[in-house]
Amino acid sequence: MPELPEVETVRRGLETWCLNRTITKVQTLHHRATNPRSISPLSELVGATITKVSRRGKFLWLELGRPYCLVAHLGMSGQFRVQEPSIADEKHLRVRMTLDNTQELRYIDQRTFGWLAINKYEGDIPTLVSEIAPDIFEESFDRTLVKAKFRSRKSEIKRALLDQSLMSGVGNIYADESLWRAKIHPATSCDQVSPQKLESLFRAVESVMSKALVEGGTSFDSLYINVNGESGYFAHSLEAYGRTGEPCSRCGTPIERIVIAARSSHFCPHCQRM
Ligand SMILES: [Zn+2]
């Protein structure tokens, strides 16, 4: 599933290949690619010019000149590609937007949990994204306030990290990796985490996701926008996620797996004690 660093890589790719392009034709090939909350069919995008590509957490939006924008959520398997029209359609092509340079911005989604929607704004943020808190890289991210919100909760810290209304963009993989780095047990109650530990957790979130951004950000040097799935980061840098039974790289204790908020949590029972 694409997480914040992958979505940011997509944003940069779209910015590189689509900025200031006008959409000349739209073809929708699957009804589920359009979010039911879209204020009009995607065909209404004809004539719109992409003036900016923005992101909050895992939501992307193409700014089309106020008051409209095109919001995208990649779901489990959504991808954008910019292709020459001569290139054969991908098997799971859902939406084709032809640009004024004849290239096609294609939305491909095997599992169709992702969606596109024409949307209006609430302030600077699309209404469909307005419930989502700023992510840790945004200027509007208020670190002091978010820490206070964390410390006032009695839920498990892992659950709070995944809560998109507190801080957006931290998915399961980055949550486990950050907790391992900060040496915090994922089931620790938020109000039991010291301010120092919480700060080291926030720093871990920043460094884990920045590292993934650097690695993902170099991978689109052609018209293929690398959008999806496992970025290079996952191949060699995971310390906890998906490593059940393998030795912790700090202490050698086998990594364990428990379930919190219906998601797998991977942690070292020695380094991350309650
Ligand atoms: Zn350990």
Helix/strand order: HEEEEEEEEEEHHHHHEE
Mean pLDDT: 90
Instruction: Work out the number of β strands.
Output: 12
Stretches where pLDDT falls below 50 for ≥5 residues? 217-233
Sheet with the most strands? 4 strands, antiparallel
Backbone CA Rg? 20 Å
Strand order of the largest sheet: 1-6-7-5
CATH topology of the largest domain: N-terminal domain of MutM-like DNA repair proteins
Quick summary of this structure?
This protein has helices at 4-18, 143-151, 157-162, 172-182, 195-216, 232-237; strands spanning 23-28, 52-56, 59-63, 69-73, 78-83, 93-99, 104-109, 115-119, 121-122, 125-126, 256-260, 263-267. The chain is of the alpha+beta class and 274 residues long. It has two domains: 4-129, MutM-like, N-terminal (N-terminal domain of MutM-like DNA repair proteins, Alpha-Beta Barrel), CATH 3.20.190; 143-267, Helicase, Ruva Protein, domain 3, CATH 1.10.8.50.
Describe the protein.
It is elongated, with a radius of gyration of 20 Å. The protein has a 4-stranded antiparallel sheet with strand order 1-6-7-5, with helices on one face. The chain has 2 domains: 126 residues, N-terminal domain of MutM-like DNA repair proteins (Alpha-Beta Barrel); 125 residues, Helicase, Ruva Protein, domain 3 (Orthogonal Bundle). 25% of the residues lie in helices and 22% in strands. The chain is an alpha+beta fold. Helix 1 packs parallel to helix 5 and helix 4 packs across helix 5. About 6% of the residues have low confidence. Zinc ion binds next to loops.
